[in-house]
Amino acid sequence: MAARSRRPAVKAAVVAALVAIAVLGVVYAVDRALGENGAEQADAKLAAALHASSGALDARVARASADAERLARSRAVQRALATRDRRRLAEVARTAREPMLLQTRGRLALGRRVANAVRRSVTVGHVGEITAFVPLDEQLLRGIERQADANSGIVLVLVRGGRVFAGPPELQGERLALPGISGGNEGRYRAAGTQIVDSPQPTELGALLPNRLVDSSGTHRRRILLAAIGTLATLLLLAAALSELLRRRRGRGERRRSLGPRSAPTDGRDALALVGDALAATHDPEALLPVILGVAIEATGAVGGRLVEGTRELAVRGRPVGEAEPLSLSLGGTDDHRRLYLYPPLRGFTEESQELAGWLATQASIALENAHLHGLVKAQAVTDELTGLSNRRRFMEVLTLELKRSERFESPLGLLLVDLDDFKLVNDRFGHHTGDQVLRALSDVFRAGLRDVDLAGRIGGEEFAVLLPETDETGAAGVAGRLRGALAALELDAPEGGSLSVTASFGVAVYPEAQSSDELLTLADAALYRAKAEGKNRVVLAPTR
After folding, report:
1. pLDDT by residue (tens digit) across 191-219?
2. Over the stretch 479-516, which tens digit does the pLDDT of each residue have?
3. Phi and psi for 184 in degrees, rounded to 5?
């Protein structure tokens, strides 16, 4: 008898230990995942900052080249070079937007020569040459830096020979080996870099983010740990309470009775095992509800029961016997509207059965809330916090899976890359709060204009991507056109009154024209670049093979 009386307590301890191991395993795995997600988000920010700043540098070089070509076509400048008109040539050099050097064939040179600069030279017939310079210095970095990147802690630097020669004063002279544009760790910083084309010496443009600003998942981790500890504490308390109640019931010689084809367990050990197994096996509240109902029926000797939330029935089992009122218990939920109703046996519930039912309901409420919290944290790990769309990591995972599915079933797969036009101007003029509103507005356009099977994600800054399963080139272009039109038709409230309109450019690529994730992204990015170059606010398809 002594050995038999110890079995429930031993089983409860075993269940609690197994659950503890499972919970700690989940905590460790999710904590690692969130840590990686923080680094990945930082790399995405760095890549977006580097892409934008590199594009601004290219635009500045192109503008300087255009200025030099315009001057070379000017009849007045041609005459000044031919006649060696010092005054006129000096005036041209002085009023140029970028440093200019104007040289005659007789080697007369007026203007300013910059050694450390990207240069563009234009020959002016047989009379001379005009050279425009884009200096590689701190002033350039300030001009090509996005305010949003600066606000988030990202700094730009210029690196030559492995040392920083332009950037924040505290970094100048430091040794720095920049990884590629995909990002990586470099000492105290998360860093990404790209080569500057046509610089006089090999020079890299780098984007740095202090490692102390990289891991944004600390809050999420604490939530997970609290949820896990709460779940574990719930299980231990539940196991101890059930063991104590069962011991008292055996001491009084009572046995549970229920009607129906099945027979209830005589000592409640099966119910105890079901509770532990259910809470350890799933964190899905919807999946827990029918298990909780079944366990409550088993443990209390009820002949049936049902779970409801407001007017919606969530789970039902068995039928009432006689006219007795069911035992009603709250399971929390929205406005405390989730309730458990247990149908009593013919002889009614004993006092201890009612006590047990109340305890089960309390612990089930805590378990459901913990499961709900776990679901929220899990969603945060794959969701962009500002827009509610998938983050870069989740989007790339789904892209890989959908591409494999398309290969297997020989079905098309469309990919859209989307970039807001002149978004930096919106931030600079109206502030980042308005910029955030624009990003949310675009995400709302995606939600309203896409199917449930489609996936929209924010992959960095003002850059978005949309995945369109079972969609060929014509269909993908049509979707992109509708999304573009819907965004252009929006009128957002501007801070200073009036309305604000925004547009976006779209690049479209499809499988099987592209055979891999990288190829799809490359083709879509090239199409997006063409859309920007051709005037923005348009859809451009990747070239077919």
Report:
1. 888 888 777 788 889 888 887 777 544 55
2. 999 999 999 999 888 887 778 899 999 999 999 988 88
3. 170, 175
Question: Average pLDDT over the chain, rounded to whole?
Answer: 80
What is the spatial distance between Cα 202 and Cα 163, in angstroms, rounded to a whole number?
12
State both tokens at 11: 């089983």
Tell the residue number behind the tokens 């069911």, with chain if given.
326
Q: What span, in angstroms and rounded, lies between the C-alpha atoms of 276 and 241?
A: 13
Cβ contacts of 477 within 8 Å, gap of 6 or more: 508, 539, 541
Q: Which helix (H) or strand (E) holds 485?
A: helix 473-488
Nearest by Cα to 367 from 277, 455, 427: 277
Q: Mean per-residue pLDDT for 440-453? A: 93
Report the 3 state secondary structure along 84-146. Answer: CCHHHHHHHHHHCCCCEEEEECCCCEEECCCCCEEEEEEEECCCEEEEEEEECCHHHHHHHCC
**DSSP bridge pairs for 463:** 419, 460
Can you tell me whether residue 541 is helix, strand or coil? strand
Q: What is the DSSP annotation of 403-441? A: HHHHHHHT--EEEEEEEETTHHHHHHHH-HHHHHHHHHH
> Which is it for strands 128-135 and 100-104: parallel, antiparallel or unpaired?
antiparallel
Q: Decide: 20 and 231 in contact? Cβ < 8 Å.
A: no
Return the DSSP state at 165. Answer: E
Determine phi and psi for 134, rounding to 5 degrees.
Answer: -115, 100
Residues 387, 156, 168: CA angle, nearest 5 degrees? 125
**Contact assessment for residue 291 and residue 307, using Cβ atoms and an 8 Å cutoff:** no
Amino acid of residue 468: L
Q: Please state, in angstroms and as integers, the Cα–Cα distance from residue 96 to each residue in 84, 113, 432, following that order.
A: 19, 13, 33
Please count the residues of the chain. 545
Looking at residue 173, its amino acid is G
Q: Decide if 227 contacts 369 (C-beta within 8 A).
A: no
Apex CA 464: angle with CA 463 and CA 470, to 5°? 150
| pTM tops 0.90 | no
User: Residues 371, 282: contact at Cβ < 8 Å?
Assistant: yes
Looking at residue 536, what DSSP letter applies?
S
Whether the per-residue pLDDT at 391 is higher than 70: the answer is yes
Burial of 312 (C-beta count, 10 Å sphere; 0-12/13-18/19+): exposed
Give the pLDDT band (50/70/90) at residue 358.
Answer: confident
How many CB atoms sit inside 10 A of residue 277's CB?
15
| Banded model confidence at residue 375, pLDDT cuts 50, 70, 90 | low
Cβ atoms of 199 and 335 closer than 8 Å: no
According to the model, what pLDDT value does residue 253 have?
Answer: 47
- Beta-carbon contacts of 470 under 8 Å, excluding residues fewer than 6 positions away, are 411, 412, 413, 453
CB 378 within 8 A of CB 282: no
Give CA–CA dist 395/414, Å, rounded.
14
